[in-house]
Amino acid sequence: MKNLLTLILIALVAFVGYALFWPSDFMPQPWTVATATTGDAPVRSAPLAQAERLGEDTATGPEDVAIDNQGRLYAGYEDGTIRRFDPDGSNGQVFATTNGRPLGLAFSSKPVAPTDDQASTESGDETGGPEQATDAPPPQTLIVADADKGLLAINPAGDIKILASGAEGRPFKFTNDVDVGPDGTIYFTDASSKYGHDAYRTDILEHGGHGRLMEYDPATATVTVLLGGLQFANGVAASGDGAYVLVTETGSYRVLRYWLSGDMAGQSDIFIDRLPGFPDGISHGADSDTFWLALFAPRNRLLDFTADKPWLRRIIYHLPRALQPEPAHVAGLMGIKPDGTVVTDLRDDSAGAFAPITSVQEQGNSLYLGSLSADAFARIPRPTPETTP
Questions:
Q1: What 3 state SS string does 131-155 have?
Q2: What CATH code is carried by the domain that includes residue 279?
């Protein structure tokens, strides 16, 4: 018994020594965690607990949902497909295949789609659909943040064009989310210039500031970096008037605001911070004038404890995946007014909760929810102050 304990101790010391001193690209940085002051929501909040699952068993990981001007629903999956559904969530069909990992989706009515002779051969065999009727709404271009391929434009026929795959001499590693401003400018994020989408937890654990917020100008086909050094740049949402754009910093539990016009044009400030969980996708609802924020999971106490202890995070990084901190299976979303006031704060911690929620899109009186790992997306009634607990 004594010999066994001695061997275990030797193995433990050897592992710690390896984790701390063996050369590695993983370079955790110390940071200070602020106590959460927003979001002490009750669990199993209606209407989140009654989420209606749509497109079940179609494919895995509908990270984001976009709605075109005919009310049809689009979602991108981990198999590289983007699928289109009828407004009720039925009749799912492949619209395009990126051969990457489509994440953020947004529609633009501006001329950024490829023409027929520009169409990429990356589009799949099962693309497009019937021709538009003469009285149909004008065609739109689907803008896609594909984690592997970069910023893409897909025209109504399903033809794909790569708009950008890098900026300032640095290729995108993890193109994450996208939104289109009122003037047609495209805003998007590269979550990490170091780690790909299969290592998103490593980037957050490292806290190395590898994320960027960027804009793409369709008129000049140029990319401009608006903010760098972000801690896992994730969701992005332009304001209704185009005065600013919001970007979620998942690794720092906050949402930043970059001003596009006015006295603070070109500067940034904090829109909301000290959030109760990891902020993911964010969008602006025109009807409610509310920013809808998805919370991927609540904060992890162990992760917060190690924030100022990079040596401990090095040890965690080298542990088997099963022993590393796991995000809790809790659905969460928040509604925030343009002045930063939280008006909706919902959670569902039940075993059957639709979680994790990675995006929230408003359409009329409904909210559509995306998920990184579910086999469906979901719809709930849009909360109002009267229906929010």
A1: CCCCCCCCCCEEEEEECCCEEEEEC
A2: 2.120.10.30
HSE-CB at 314 with a 13 A cutoff on CA atoms is 19
The predicted-structure confidence for 74-89, as pLDDT tens digits, reads as follows 999 999 999 999 999 9
In angstroms, the CA 24 to CA 42 distance is 42
Domain that holds residue 301: 2-32+45-381
Structural domain includes residue 39: no
Q: Could you identify the residue written with the tokens 């998920």?
A: 371
Task: Give the whole-angstrom CA distance, residue 142 versus residue 104.
Answer: 10
Closest CA to 270 of 246, 299, 298, 300: 246
How would residue 387 be classed by pLDDT, with cut points 50, 70 and 90? low
Higher pLDDT among residues 139 and 54, named by residue? 54
Dig out the tokens for 190 from the structure. Answer: 């590269």
Please give the model's pTM, rounded to 2 decimal places: 0.90
Look at residue 151 and tell me if it is in a domain.
Answer: yes
Of residues 36 and 242, more confidence is placed in 242
Does residue 388 fall inside a structural domain?
no
Evaluate whether residue 56 is within a structural domain: yes
| Separation in Å, CA 313 to CA 28, 197, 233 | 7, 20, 21
Between the alpha carbon of residue 348 and those of residues 270, 279, 352, 357, the distances in Å are: 27, 16, 9, 11
Question: Domain count of the chain?
Answer: 1
Q: How many residues does the chain have?
A: 389
Q: Indicate if the pLDDT at residue 126 is higher than 50.
A: no
- The widest CA-to-CA distance across the chain, in whole angstroms, is 84
